[in-house]
């Protein structure tokens, strides 16, 4: 007969470094940011984000190339208008990548596994929203930086004035990224199937933009330009454009914007409400999923 032996090796306590909450938050943020661009995932996951990133860069590169030959200041695209002009590409990026960050864990029912460790519900949500915001900011800010750097290299006039316009546009890109990420993450979190999530985010963007354009067209036909401007509050890109125009001194990219600094303050307050409200909704969504 074979005999068995039990070896008592004793319980060994963990004596290593305990990194704490900041390390957990940073790890979740980096993991989600990499996922937004398909890094660490199969090759097919990288195609869409990098293709859209390349498309975003093309107009900036072409604009710089045209300016280098013509030396016409009008050849350079306006920094503050770049996101609005390419909003369709940005919306597609948001629609395809928001479900990757917001609904994968929900779809595969692994959210409770995250919270079985000392991961706070709010930390989990903040890391995801911050990662999506950073991914969108990079998508918009890199082409704007190419425009600015290309203008400096090719001797654009009034370089000091260009610096302030560039910095204002970067602030605008950050605000665009915050608002769009907040909206896209909420929509995607309530549509666990990725295909439905993509369609839902696109639908929210198209319905809001189309609705605002229709009302603005009717208002302008009746010479009610004030109503036309205030309607911009109901479309994400128009909303941020109001902040850029009224508080950052940019030229308008929307059909119409409401007058005065008060309009900029109202638009900025609405942006804040959207971001904070979205974080609260996502917190409740993931907390409920973590308990199921």
Automatic annotation (TrEMBL):
The keyword Iron-sulfur does not apply. The chain crosses the membrane at residues 47-70, 82-102, 129-154, 166-190, 196-215, 227-249, 261-283. Keywords: Membrane, Transmembrane, Transmembrane helix. This is ABC transporter permease.
């Amino acid at each position: 007969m074979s005999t068995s032996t039990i070896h008592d090796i004793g319980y060994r306590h963990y004596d290593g470094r305990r990194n704490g909450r900041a390390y957990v938050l940073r790890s979740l943020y980096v993991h989600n940011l990499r996922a937004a661009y398909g890094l660490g995932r199969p090759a097919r996951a990288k195609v869409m984000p990098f293709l859209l990133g390349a498309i975003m860069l093309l107009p900036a590169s072409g604009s710089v190339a045209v300016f280098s030959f013509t030396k016409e200041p009008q050849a350079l695209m306006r920094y503050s208008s770049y996101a609005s002009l390419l909003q369709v590409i940005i919306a597609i990026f948001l629609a395809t990548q928001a479900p990757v960050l917001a609904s994968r864990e929900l779809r595969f029912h692994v959210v409770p596994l995250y919270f079985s460790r000392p991961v706070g519900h709010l930390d989990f949500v903040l890391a995801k929203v911050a990662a999506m915001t950073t991914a969108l900011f990079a998508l918009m800010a890199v082409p704007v930086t190419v425009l600015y750097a290309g203008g400096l290299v090719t001797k654009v006039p009034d370089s000091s004035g260009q610096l302030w316009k560039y910095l204002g546009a970067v602030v605008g890109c950050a605000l665009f990224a915050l608002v769009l990420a907040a909206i896209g993450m909420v929509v995607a979190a309530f549509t666990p199937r990725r295909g439905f999530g993509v369609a839902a985010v696109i639908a929210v963007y198209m319905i809001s933009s189309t609705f605002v354009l229709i009302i603005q067209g009717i208002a302008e036909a009746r010479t009610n330009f004030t109503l036309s401007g205030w309607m911009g509050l109901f479309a994400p890109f128009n909303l941020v454009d109001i902040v850029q125009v009224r508080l950052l001194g940019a030229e308008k990219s929307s059909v119409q914007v409401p007058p005065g600094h008060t309009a900029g303050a109202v638009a900025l307050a609405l942006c804040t409400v959207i971001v904070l409200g979205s974080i609260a909704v996502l917190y409740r969504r993931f907390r409920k999923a973590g308990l199921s």
